[in-house]
Design goal:
about 25% strand, ATP-binding, binds adenosine-5'-diphosphate, alpha/beta, metal-binding, UDP-N-acetylmuramoyl-L-alanine:D-glutamate ligase, Ribo/fructo_kinase
C-alpha cells in the first residue's frame, strides 16, 4: 500500500480575453471546476498505474463529489477527512495567450492533525510507502512517524521550499524533483550544475530527477541511470510530473527494475503531455503497455 498524504483541490478555471486589471469587473468566456492538487493527481496516477493507493487528506464536507470522482478512478478514499474548512482550491485565469495567473487557497489541505496522522500510520507496515508533496502541513511530523514505523518515504518537494526540504532529507528514502526544484534545492542556476551537484551534495540519497522532454535521471551512491524521454508532440505538460511519479512508484512497488520503472513512467508522462488538461489526461496502465508495444 502507498499512503499518499497529499493536497486535494477543486480548482476554478476561467478563460478570459486578458487578466483582470485592478478595479476591473469582467465576464468570463468559460468556466470549469476541475479536480486538482499535486496530491490528488499523484493518487490518480498511482491508481491508474495499478497501485494500491490510500489518499490521506481533507476536504470540506459539502464537496463529497470529489470522493466519488477519486473513488471511480481507483483511489481509496477512506482516509480523507471531511471538515468544516473550505476545500483547497486554485482560482485560475487563463488568457488568450494561454498564460495563467493563479490564486491558491490551501484550506483543508493544511488542516491535517497529528491524531489523524498517528491513526493512519498505525496501520502501515515495512512493505508500505508514504508519499508526500509540499502542499500539505505536518510534513516533518509525518516523515518522522513513518520512519519510526519502518515505512519508506518518497518526497516530491513541490512547490520547492529548500529550507524545509534540507531539514527533512534525513527521513527521505526517495527524493523526486524536476529540474527547477533540483536547482533551487542546491542553489545553482543551471541544469547541468544540478545534475552533478545534487548527487555530490547528497551521495547516500536516492534521487529521481525528471528532466522535462530530455527524460529522467536516477542516482544513488555510484549508480547513475539515465532514461531518455519519448519523442511526442507535446500539447500541455500539466500533470506530467505527477503522472511520472505515480507510474514510477507503482512499478517500483511491483519490484520492477529501476530502468523498467523509469521507462514505463516516461511512457506514461509522454502520453499525458499529448493530451490537454490535468488529472483527466493521466493514462491507464493499458494505455502505457500499448504505447510501449508500438
Ligand atoms: P514537471 O511536470 O514536474 O515539471 P517534468 O517537466 O520534468 O516534470 O516532466 C516529467 C516527465 O514527463 C519527464 O521526465 C518526461 O519523461 C515527461 N515529459 C515532460 N515533457 C515532455 C515532452 N515534451 N515530451 C515527452 N515527455 C515529456
Amino acid at each position: 500500500t502507498i499512503y499518499n498524504f497529499g493536497s486535494i483541490n477543486l480548482d476554478h478555471l476561467y478563460q478570459l480575453d486578458h487578466f483582470v486589471r485592478p478595479g476591473e469587473t469582467m465576464a468570463s468566456n468559460s468556466y470549469q471546476r476541475l479536480l486538482g492538487g499535486k496530491g490528488a493527481n499523484q493518487s490518480v496516477a498511482l491508481a491508474k498505474a495499478g497501485a494500491d493507493v490510500k489518499h490521506v487528506g481533507a476536504i470540506h464536507h459539502t464537496d463529497q463529489s470529489i470522493l466519488q470522482q477519486l473513488q471511480s478512478l481507483g483511489v481509496d478514499i477512506g482516509l480523507i477527512a471531511l471538515l468544516d474548512v473550505p476545500t483547497g482550491h486554485a482560482i485560475i485565469q487563463l488568457n488568450k495567450e494561454a498564460e495563467n495567473a493563479i490564486i491558491l487557497y490551501q484550506g483543508a489541505n493544511h488542516a491535517l492533525t497529528e491524531a489523524q496522522v498517528d491513526q493512519v500510520l498505525e496501520q502501515a507496515t515495512a512493505e508500505d510507502w508514504v508519499l508526500l508533496q509540499n502542499e500539505t502541513n505536518l510534513i516533518e511530523y509525518i516523515m518522522r512517524k513513518a520512519q519510526q514505523q519502518g515505512v519508506k518515504v518518497a518526497f516530491n518537494p513541490a512547490p520547492m521550499d529548500a529550507e524545509l526540504t534540507k531539514q527533512v532529507l534525513p527521513f527521505v528514502d526517495l527524493l523526486i524533483v524536476n529540474e527547477v526544484e533540483a536547482m533551487d534545492l542546491i542553489g545553482v542556476d543551471n541544469v547541468d550544475a544540478a545534475i552533478t551537484g545534487l548527487p555530490a551534495a547528497y551521495p547516500d540519497l536516492a534521487v529521481l530527477m525528471t528532466l522535462g522532454k530530455a527524460g529522467v535521471r536516477y542516482f544513488k551512491k555510484d549508480i547513475n541511470v539515465f532514461v531518455k524521454a519519448f519523442s511526442v508532440e507535446a500539447v500541455d505538460t500539466t500533470a506530467a510530473g505527477d503522472t511520472f511519479i505515480g507510474f514510477c512508484l507503482s512499478s517500483l512497488m511491483n519490484n520492477d527494475e529501476m530502468t523498467q520503472a523509469l521507462t514505463r513512467a516516461c511512457a506514461a508522462s509522454a502520453i499525458c503531455v499529448t493530451r490537454l488538461g490535468a488529472a483527466i489526461t493521466i493514462p491507464t496502465a493499458q494505455d502505457v503497455t500499448e504505447f510501449l508495444a508500438n
